[in-house]
Design goal:
Helix content is 71%, strand content 0%. The protein is globular and about 60 Å long. The longest helix is centred in the C-terminal third of the chain and has 34 residues, at 417-450. It is built from 18 helices and no strands.
Length: 526
């Protein structure tokens, strides 16, 4: 196991200041910090509930606008690509403009985008307005994390991140329930209009209660890095999004964007290694062993959580013929597990470090997935077994997500936090997308292999948005909901096979977690 690290990496320029100049923080969670966490949580709830609610509305958009499902799926894909594009810029922008100003701007952009979506007269404008939402939403997640990290200090970070993580983790569960109810009761416009009072409240509260940004000299934007990384990540994810709808990975719609995206990211790595100072993302942070192993574990965890998390509602809707709202209600069991363990994980991490609690959480995820898979494999699905599996899985996720995120930034000096958060966010987004694409591809292959003449309704296939910290969206295959004939056994066999892969992935994730520190992480400057 690696020792407690020194903060490493290339100098970040004038913005860096030594730890001794950082403000002192009390050990207890005071009212001021809880207010800030609540405001960040309010904005996060708005963004992540909206993302999953839009997934529920896909069929409604097809009917309302008379558009093809391929066109409608861009209401999700466009958001996700905008989301992925702005994340790499968040670290530099936070250093340049300040986290408070940027947070206010992100909330405002998302809220205005929501209003525009609600009044969109056609599908093309709705897609454009969703891209605007994605710009705001893509900034909210890393900014909330930066703000909470700065205000909490290292001794309280685990507990406060645990509070802030709840909206990211519960969004995929509450979104289908809220979205289904709003669409059925008031109409699709209300999945966007509901954001207006939430967004305005978050904006006003943040303007009044967030501390002022601390003025610091800013560094120049790494323009070349930005032109390589942001399009690279977006193009790579676009290729992954195309996988479920194609017959082969060699399909040009899949292979070409993945190849271009990978080439741009590789070029970014080469550029960053040759750049003396101020890279967009400081890859020198990987010299810090905690950052390195936390990011590797986070990538594998995001792939597992997002991939499995998208399979579960897909199974409920396809094999058990539940509505999106009903599948959301079934997912509440996972939410209960999260609520039980997230606060305890934060307290445990602040006292014992991240390694031990993560090594409790990851096996729980594997066990929960295993129990759920057993329920899926039974001749007749047993709801109690399925719900117990989800409960255990939720407990494992609650023990894993917060400590991983907090461990990464705890080992960094204050001036490094923005860039470390950006690195973690990009890693999380790509890992989640890889997991979603992998599970979608495996499930599609199983459908084709065991399904015979079974064909999914083409109007039911939609894109998806990914990322573990929030799993910000739905499934690329989460609405294979209309199948010809009685194929319950074939479907159960297909899902069982893919869930077994998810269990194996959860087990593999334990390997890098072994190297996480099992003591409180404190950055040391020399």
């Amino acid at each position: 196991m690696d020792s407690v690290p020194t903060t490493l990496g290339a100098p970040s320029g004038p913005a860096e200041r030594p730890d001794e100049d950082a403000p002192a923080h009390p050990d207890k969670l005071d009212a001021s910090l809880l207010r800030i966490a609540g405001i960040c949580g309010l904005a996060s709830v708005m963004a992540f509930l909206d993302s999953t609610a839009v997934t529920v509305a896909q069929r409604t958009f097809v009917t309302q606008f008379g558009a093809s499902q391929a066109m409608v799926s861009w209401t999700i894909a466009g958001y996700m690509l905008a989301f992925a594009t702005v994340i790499p810029m968040s670290g530099w922008a936070a250093d340049r403009y300040g986290t408070k100003r940027l947070f206010l701007g992100a909330v405002l952009v998302f809220t205005v985008g929501s209003l525009l979506c609600a009044v969109a007269p056609n599908i093309l404008l709705l897609i454009i307005f969703r891209v605007i939402q994605g710009v705001g939403g893509g900034m909210l997640m890393p900014l909330s994390f930066m703000i909470l990290t700065r205000e909490a200090g290292p001794k309280r970070l685990g507990r406060v991140i645990a509070i802030g993580a709840v909206p990211f983790l519960l969004g995929p569960i509450g979104g289908p329930i809220l979205g289904g109810w709003l669409i059925g009761t008031y109409g699709w416009e209300w999945i966007f209009l509901i954001n207006l009072p939430i967004g305005l409240s978050a904006f006003l509260l943040a303007a009044l209660m967030f501390p002022k940004d601390r003025p610091e000299p800013s560094e120049k934007l790494d323009v070349v890095g930005a032109l390589l990384l942001s399009p690279g990540v977006a193009t790579l994810l676009a290729g992954m999004l195309a996988i479920p709808g194609r017959d082969s990975l060699a399909d040009p719609h899949v292979l070409l964007p993945i190849a271009i995206g990978a080439a741009l990211i590789f070029a970014f790595v080469v550029h960053t290694r040759n750049r003396a100072s101020h890279p967009l993302i400081d890859l020198g942070l990987f010299e810090n062993p905690v950052v390195r192993w936390a990011n590797i574990t986070q990538f594998a965890f995001a792939a597992t959580f997002v991939g499995a998390g998208l399979l579960v509602p897909s199974y409920f809707q396809v094999a058990l013929h539940q509505t999106p709202m009903q599948s959301g209600m079934s997912m509440v069991a996972m939410g209960i597990g999260l609520v039980l363990t997230v606060p305890l994980a934060g307290v445990f991490m602040d006292k014992r470090g991240p390694g031990t609690i993560v090594l409790i959480g990851l096996p729980l995820i594997a066990v929960g997935l295993g129990v759920f898979t057993y329920g899926v494999a039974r001749p007749e699905a047993h709801s109690a077994i399925l719900l117990i599996g989800l409960l255990i899985m939720g407990m494992g996720v609650g023990c894993t997500s917060t400590p991983l995120s907090a461990a990464c930034v705890q080992s960094l000096a204050p001036a490094r936090v923005a860039r470390g958060t950006t690195l973690l966010s990009v890693n999380d987004q790509v890992g989640g997308s890889v997991g979603a694409a992998l599970m979608a591809m495996l499930l599609t292959t199983q459908f084709n292999r065991v399904g015979g003449g079974i064909e999914p309704d083409p109007t039911a296939v939609s894109g998806g948005e990914t990322g573990a910290a929030g799993m910000a969206g739905g499934s690329p295959m989460n609405s294979y909901s209309d199948f010809a004939g009685d194929a319950s056994q074939l479907l159960s066999h297909a899902y069982t096979t893919v869930f077994l892969v998810a269990v194996a992935l959860a087990v593999v994730t334990v390997i890098p977690a072994i190297f996480l520190p099992r003591a409180v992480v404190v950055n040391i400057n020399h």
